[in-house]
Backbone:
């Protein structure tokens, strides 16, 4: 497969803390093709977020990344820090879990989105602002010219997450990593963020503990447990015929919840 | 937000008056602060509202011009201490690790010096003048600010918006000064205000000891020094500058406390 956008080989993330090593990610291989939507499922603490942060090289000491992350043929781990900064937000971007703290409380949302353009493209204040307003419209914020002047605390959780998506999508990145983007939201909001992600024309790595959500959005699923990918395959196959015991447990637990709801 | 707090309002008004008097000193002062009159050590009267000093200079005029010196020393000294403190605090809190260790141990060492003696030692080597006083006070009072900013950074850098800022490609410099620093400003503003009160006191003490602002330039501190030998004969020479120092420092404290309450989002 030569047209892989992202090729991760033997990726490990270890955290060193006073002599203890926590192996958050261990020997993970993962490939993503252009245009795909890949789901990464697993329970909290299984290393999903560490994997996502490692792709952007945002693991800070005492954490260390091993292995190879090939992006369009270049190993990201060999890039200089300024080349890596170009990548972040430009080629690869990320939506975070908690929209309530992912936006900076002292700037209005327009400025925050505009910053992406100012950092990467050196646009003037006015041009960057206009782009920010356009993006707010794109993520279905009503009355974007007005709302751009509002501060994060004036937005609801779902709207904040829309703003975060707008920020991540600002420069039409080739890969958008969504790290549990719906976990902090209520069910109707989850749905609308999911719809929004479907509209975006880009490759998405969707991380979640909710296999139901993942199966709705993604064509392919990777299941992660204790830092390793235990099963990988097409969504239909995984849901209908899980090979791995842990995957089966995940799938069944969601089935059971659904059954309970249907019974009551 | 200061409106609700009566003490802070009082402080703000008093402070504004002092600042206006100092800023437009030539307009408000009845005499040239260095002009020598005929009556030495004259008690307060209609002619000399706060009396005259041992050389026959008008105390009110010297007080107003002295305010100019004392307040500007306070402002510049705090600017110096904020610059050093914020910079070191940012670096220490953001980068952590060995850099943090070095900066914080250096801060501890600076804190364990008896500041006033350190200043005295430095001032006795340097030529005592108003410029040196500003720098020296600033350079010996940044430690609290550095610790404060470091603490804020330690807490703020764990917030997701910092990670988000890095994820859109912001450099460390940009993350520190554009994303984290503005969030840590409220307590820094309060500390700066209180620091100005401290700087006024230190300047007074230095000038009182003759190592601060040099005569004939008037400052509140050296007016106190001049009054020493005449405490019984001319108590106004001591009481009036003393009172002004107390009022200035007190009003800064009130404003600082008011800001602390007003800027605290939890209340």
Residues:
């Amino acid at each position: 497969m030569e047209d892989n956008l992202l090729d991760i080989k033997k990726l490990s993330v270890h955290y060193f803390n006073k002599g203890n090593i926590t192996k958050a990610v261990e020997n993970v291989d993962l490939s993503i093709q252009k245009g795909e939507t890949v789901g990464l499922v697993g329970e909290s603490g299984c290393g999903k977020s560490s994997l996502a942060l490692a792709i952007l090289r945002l693991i800070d000491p005492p954490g260390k990344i091993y292995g190879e992350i090939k992006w369009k043929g270049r190993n990201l781990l060999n890039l200089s820090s300024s080349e890596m900064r170009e990548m972040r937000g430009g080629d690869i971007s990320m939506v975070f879990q908690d929209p309530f703290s992912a936006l900076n409380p002292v700037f209005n949302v327009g400025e925050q989105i505009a910053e992406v353009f100012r950092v990467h493209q050196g646009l003037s204040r006015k041009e960057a602002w206009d782009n920010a307003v356009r993006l707010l419209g794109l993520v279905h914020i009503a009355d974007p010219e007005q709302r751009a002047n509002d501060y994060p605390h004036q937005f609801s959780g779902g709207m904040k997450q829309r703003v975060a998506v707008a920020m991540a999508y600002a420069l039409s990145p080739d890969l958008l990593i969504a790290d549990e983007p719906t976990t902090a939201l209520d069910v109707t909001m989850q749905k609308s963020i999911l719809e929004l992600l479907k509209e975006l024309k880009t490759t998405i790595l969707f991380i979640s503990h909710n296999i139901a959500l993942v199966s709705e959005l993604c064509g392919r699923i990777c299941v992660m447990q204790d830092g390793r990918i235990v099963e990988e395959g097409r969504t239909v196959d995984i849901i209908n015929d899980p090979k791995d015991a842990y995957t089966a447990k995940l799938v069944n637990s969601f089935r059971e919840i659904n059954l309970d709801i249907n019974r009551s | 937000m200061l409106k609700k707090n009566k003490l802070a309002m009082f402080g703000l008004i008093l402070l504004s008056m002092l600042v206006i008097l100092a800023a437009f000193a030539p307009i408000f002062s009845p005499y040239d602060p260095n002009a020598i009159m005929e009556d030495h050590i004259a008690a307060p009267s209609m002619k000399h509202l706060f009396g005259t000093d041992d050389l026959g200079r008008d105390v009110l005029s010297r007080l107003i011009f002295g305010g100019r010196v004392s307040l500007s020393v306070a402002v510049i000294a705090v600017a110096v201490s904020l610059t050093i403190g914020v910079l070191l605090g940012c670096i220490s809190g953001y980068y952590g690790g060995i850099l943090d260790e070095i900066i914080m141990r250096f801060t501890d060492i600076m804190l364990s010096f008896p500041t006033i003696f350190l200043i005295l030692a430095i001032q006795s080597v340097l030529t005592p003048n108003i410029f040196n006083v500003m720098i020296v006070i600033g350079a010996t009072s940044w430690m609290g600010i550095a610790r404060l900013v470091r603490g804020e950074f330690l807490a703020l850098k764990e917030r997701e918006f910092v990670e988000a800022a890095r994820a859109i490609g912001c450099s460390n410099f940009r993350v520190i000064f554009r994303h984290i620093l503005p969030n840590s400003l409220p307590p820094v503003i309060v500390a700066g205000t209180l620091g100005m009160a401290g700087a006024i006191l230190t300047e007074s003490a230095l000038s009182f000891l003759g190592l601060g602002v040099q005569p004939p330039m008037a400052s509140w501190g050296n007016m106190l020094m001049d009054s020493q030998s005449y405490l019984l004969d001319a108590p106004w020479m001591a009481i009036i500058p003393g009172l002004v120092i107390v009022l200035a420092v007190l009003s800064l404290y009130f404003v600082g406390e008011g800001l602390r309450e007003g800027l605290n989002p939890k209340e």
Chain B has twelve helices and no strands. Residues 93 and 150 of chain B are 4 Å apart (CA to CA). Chain B has one domain: 58-263.
